[in-house]
């Protein structure tokens, strides 16, 4: 499949702040990729370097196998930044027409209106009269004007109400189905989990996790398998010898096993015919994984 983004050893230092620290990844065509992370994790700095708007201290970015600064690449990219700034004193329709004129392969006014949900009265409004939500819709339309293959959205849904948010993500999913590649940044874990096909979790300028929301949950979360036993639990050592077992404790006739893989524990219980009852399997939420990934090491780093 066509590689849309190739990032190799990307690094950006601002004086002694390592905003982005030796990051490498590649993105193939058609995905919706979330850059997820807390404030200051390095998401925006990475996006600015991907766009060719900020020079890396070290490392390399390729979009469509080319330098992001060349015109042919720029024409294939659409961007919506968090604070949409629009030229004043023109009607939305005029602004869109102006931007359309920059591209040889632009979408029609009708397509733009259709995709972004701009209403007839909105396109006839002057830009300075638009509400925050309307500005975002215009920002969305401007990102799409040139019918780009790669779209960047920096915190796109901040300030949107839940209806606009849902509509926005429905449209983004449709765009991805058409084969466009979407990269968005967010603080919202739930949003990344709901929308993204892949999450890059940023932390202190590095990528702390990379995968589908499901695989991040699977790999990063500890699971527990607990069950009742009649009398003393005879298999304690057997379980503790298993590499998948992180911890095992017993309390009031109930055994709890903390593990990376609950399936293996369950299958061990069944294949060894261990007599237990009232089995329960619990897994933390993505929220827990996020907190775990973005706080634990911070506490550690403060020590140094
Ligand atoms: N122009 C700059 N000059 C100095 N430091 C900067 C500059 N831009 C970013 N930083 C620092 O680099 C680090 C990463 O910032 P960045 O904006 O990339 O994070 P982020 O993940 O996008 O956060 P947010 O969600 O708040 O936008 C932070 O410590 C930030 O203070």
TrEMBL record:
<dbReference type="GO" id="GO:0005524">
    <property type="term" value="F:ATP binding"/>
</dbReference>
<protein>
    <submittedName>
        <fullName>ABC transporter ATP-binding protein</fullName>
    </submittedName>
</protein>
<feature type="domain" description="ABC transporter">
    <location>
        <begin position="5"/>
        <end position="229"/>
    </location>
</feature>
<dbReference type="InterPro" id="IPR003439">
    <property type="entry name" value="ABC_transporter-like_ATP-bd"/>
</dbReference>
<dbReference type="InterPro" id="IPR050763">
    <property type="entry name" value="ABC_transporter_ATP-binding"/>
</dbReference>
<keyword id="KW-0547">Nucleotide-binding</keyword>
<keyword id="KW-0067">ATP-binding</keyword>
<dbReference type="InterPro" id="IPR027417">
    <property type="entry name" value="P-loop_NTPase"/>
</dbReference>
<dbReference type="InterPro" id="IPR003593">
    <property type="entry name" value="AAA+_ATPase"/>
</dbReference>
<dbReference type="InterPro" id="IPR017871">
    <property type="entry name" value="ABC_transporter-like_CS"/>
</dbReference>
<keyword id="KW-0813">Transport</keyword>
<dbReference type="Pfam" id="PF00005">
    <property type="entry name" value="ABC_tran"/>
</dbReference>
């Amino acid at each position: 499949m066509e590689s849309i983004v190739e990032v190799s050893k990307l690094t950006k230092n601002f004086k002694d702040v390592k905003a982005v620290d030796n990051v490498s990844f590649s993105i193939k065509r058609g995905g919706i990729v979330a850059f997820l992370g807390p404030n200051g994790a390095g998401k925006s700095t990475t996006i600015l370097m991907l766009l060719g708007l900020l020079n890396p201290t070290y490392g390399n970015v390729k979009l469509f196998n080319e330098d992001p600064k060349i015109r042919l690449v720029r024409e294939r990219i659409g961007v919506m930044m968090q604070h949409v700034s629009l030229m004043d004193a023109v009607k939305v329709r005029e602004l869109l027409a102006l931007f359309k004129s920059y591209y040889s392969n632009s979408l029609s006014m009708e397509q733009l209106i259709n995709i972004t949900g701009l209403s007839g009265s909105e396109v006839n409004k002057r830009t300075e009269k638009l509400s925050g939500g309307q500005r975002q819709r215009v920002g969305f339309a401007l990102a799409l004007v040139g019918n780009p293959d790669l779209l960047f959205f920096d915190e796109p849904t901040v300030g949107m109400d839940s209806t606009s948010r849902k509509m926005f993500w429905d449209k983004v999913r449709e765009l991805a189905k058409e084969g466009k590649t979407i990269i968005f940044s967010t603080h919202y874990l739930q949003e990344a989990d709901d929308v993204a096909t892949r999450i890059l979790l940023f932390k202190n300028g590095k990528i702390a996790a990379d995968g589908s929301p499901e695989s991040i949950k699977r790999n990063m979360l500890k699971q527990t398998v607990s069950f009742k036993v009649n009398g003393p639990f005879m298999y304690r050592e057997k379980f503790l010898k298993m590499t998948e077992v992180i911890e095992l404790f017993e309390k009031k006739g109930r055994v709890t096993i903390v593990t990376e893989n609950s399936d293996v524990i369950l299958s061990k219980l069944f294949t060894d015919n261990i007599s237990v009852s009232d089995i329960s399997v619990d897994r933390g939420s993505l929220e827990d994984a996020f907190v775990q990934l973005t706080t634990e090491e911070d506490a550690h780093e403060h020590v140094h």
